[in-house]
Amino acid sequence: MSTPHPPAGSPQNAPALAEGAGAATTEAGSGRSGYLYRRVALHLADHPDTILKVGEITRAIGAPSSGAVFEALKKMAAAGHATHHRDPHHRFQITQAGVDAAGALPPAAPRTRSTGGGGGRQSRPAPVPRPNGTLYHPRRLGKGWDVEELRRLRTQQVPVLLYGPPGTGKTAMVEAAFPDLLTVAGTGDTVVDDFLGSYNPIPGGGYEFVHGPLVTAMRDGRVLLVDDATLIPPRVLAVLYPAMDGRGVITIPANGNEAVEAVDGFYIVAGHNPGVHGAVLTEALASRFTVHLHVTTDWDLARHLGVPKQVVAAAIDLNADLTAGKTVWAPQLRELLGFVTVRDHLGMTAALANLAGIAPEDARDDVTAALSRHTGTPITALALGKR
Asked: Do residues 85 and 92 lie in contact, with contact meaning Cβ atoms separated by under 8 Å?
């Protein structure tokens, strides 16, 4: 177990940094003090959420020898500045102590990624509350953070389509960005009335027309999230298109062709789950959204919120298999947070069994194998025991 490290800029930490850099230089054969060590440390610091293979790091920094890079990585791990994963490939991820230490190193090359302007690192913004009271932890997007950038895109009227597996935080991000949000949850049974409104009975007899969320958002200048938009029949989605073009005007045939004009602030965001059965992204829908943003699970956040690193590592492997078509399901942030809840109430063994049990039947063997491999514990789906 590593011992605590002093802050990167402190005198106590400087000798350790110099020693590590010097040792890496000797084994790399570099003529400049600490050159390779700095390159490796700064590359990992630029990708704090990613577990990287030695070869990936070697190619990214243009090093001539993966062996020399591996030696530098092992010294970083020994200093507590990186974690060393063996599964079975050697992979490394920077620790917070490593991020702090990398900030004290002189630059070895132009940085490939920055979290803020002005040449310095921008501190992570505070979590943003959602309507249900839970907190959303902003993630990097472009030159800033996702919540800020979504708000900026709204002011510029640049529509965004969020896509990715269910449970990665698409809806949570939009809820955090826009407190004035209205939502239509799309299904194959969604109809035009779900957007425009319909006649409802009133006390004493008769009917009145109650406007739907699209009309309310247009008139009040609010944001409309069309969640699971690609499950909605294309002919129904067509009701959105006049609201999204330059005129921003729709008509309601069921209410005497009433015309509704969008006011400032009106904005549409949509969500798309490509892997869900029945989801179809038509060209007509895709072309209405200028930005298509891929949303994946934030593994660093999962660890920060208490998901054991072995379970996160298993989830990462399963997601890689999902992308490669080797399995049909992989846990995302929603399932991993559910794992933490079950663990806190029923214990680790039950939580692992439950994570296997919620997997679709045709993916369950893949999930149990990955969890067993990373935790060293035989796992079966959660079930009741004998009396």
From this structure: yes
What is the pLDDT, as a whole number, of residue 122? 58
Phi, psi of 335, deg, nearest 5:
-70, -35
23 within 8 A of 75, measured Cβ to Cβ: yes
CB 292 within 8 A of CB 286: yes
Q: How far apart are CA 55 and CA 64, in angstroms?
A: 11
How many CA atoms lie within 13 Å of 294's alpha carbon, on the beta-carbon side? 3
Picking from 345, 174, 367, 376, the residue whose alpha carbon sits closest to that of residue 271 is 174
Strands 197-201 and 181-185: unpaired
- The DSSP secondary structure of 32-95, one letter per residue, reads STTHHHHHHHHHHHT-TT--EEHHHHHHHHT-S-HHHHHHHHHHHHHTTSEEEEESSSEEEEE-
Q: Looking at residue 202, what is its pLDDT?
A: 93
Put simply, whether the predicted model's pTM sits higher than 0.90 gets the answer no
CA 297 – CA 282 distance, rounded (Å): 25
**C-alpha Rg value of the chain to the nearest Å:** 25
What proportion of the chain, given as a percentage, has pLDDT over 70? 86
Q: Residues 163-216: pLDDT tens digits?
A: 999 999 999 999 999 999 999 999 999 999 999 999 999 999 999 999 999 999
